[in-house]
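Before the break, one more example. Copy the sequence into your notebook; we will annotate it together after we see the structure.
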Amino acid sequence: MIKQIFHLIWNTRRKNILLSIEILVSFLVLFGVYTFLLTGFSIYSVPSGFAVEDTYTVSLPFPEEADSSRRVQVKRQVVNELMNNPGVVEASYSNFAVPYNSGGWSSNTFVDGKEAHSFFVVADDKFDKVHQLQLVQGRWFEASDATRRIPPVVINQLYVDRYLEDREALGTMIQVDGAEREVVGVISHYKYRSDFLSESPVTVMFEPAFTAKSGFLNINVKPGTPATFELELSDILEGTGYLTGFQILKTESKRPVVNRFFMIPMYIFVFLCVFLILNVALGLFGVVWYN
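Here is what the structure looks like once it is written out:
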């Protein structure tokens, strides 16, 4: 049947030149959309490397006039009160590179003088427990790392595969902003920006929890913790008398938001393909009916 349809079209190709062009264009569009979808879902299939259930992230907008000692005091007060809450498992501080936060800080690191492009995460010794990161080599940071002569870093497996494939990762010296740092651990993945953005090499730098630098609070709560926890957390933050513009977000609620920028074009392209297929099918049916 299909062979006969194309035979009829070929015999009347001058009359059906527009339909022939439409079939060609439709084929090119379908091929392009198929490639786009295949690429998107191959990226999606790469594990994120962290857990989003029962976790919260809170941005802490300290006033510009806040001095370092006051920031440290407030951050310590918040964690102490949180850990007294029976629903809290762990709390951690980091920079903005938290799960499903689309922002990113990237630059070049250097291994034996060779450039190694990487995204950077700044986190304390509890960050891995909050987000349940998966170590494949070495260890995560410890509180005692604050006194190390050479600061430690943790990298992801992609960094190892891309830049350290011919050497032992643990103990490797990486130069970041002109300073030497030692690799003490390797995590499997950390694809934090979106499920549909390709994973990048990641370098996690240690920053003790109670310093003035890290501005994001990460919290892991027990399964089944009621939604009233957000109100309790808000009361703790407001109770410092210093934090008013904070934003409390459940980590899993951010996932569809960052993925939306990639899902919407996919829906549009699929709709376009369905429209083209129907249009071509109606054209072919018209040729058969006319002949």
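The first helix runs from residue 2 to 11. The radius of gyration is 27 Å. Try to locate both features in your own notes.
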